[in-house]
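Data availability (excerpt). The following record was deposited with the supplementary files.
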Amino acid sequence: MTTQVRGQQERKPARSSGPGKPDRTSPTIFLREVRAELRKVIWPTRKELTTYTTVAVVFILVMVGIVTGLDYSLTKLVFWAFTGK
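Predicted structure:
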């Protein structure tokens, strides 16, 4: 189904990158900007990093245990349902 329009339609101008804005950034300017942004980052201390890593590893191990337990249980259930053993 098509949309019918009466009268003249307004044409939207094509998007432009704006006046004076270059299309591409040189690698030197890009690296300067990256360096400036990295200076703004608040880096964690060694103690914080160790804590975050430990929490992440423990969480992953718990999730692996849950998924393994569910997989084992469902496998036993399916074998019991289809073979009766």
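Summary of structural features: Residues 45-85 form one domain.
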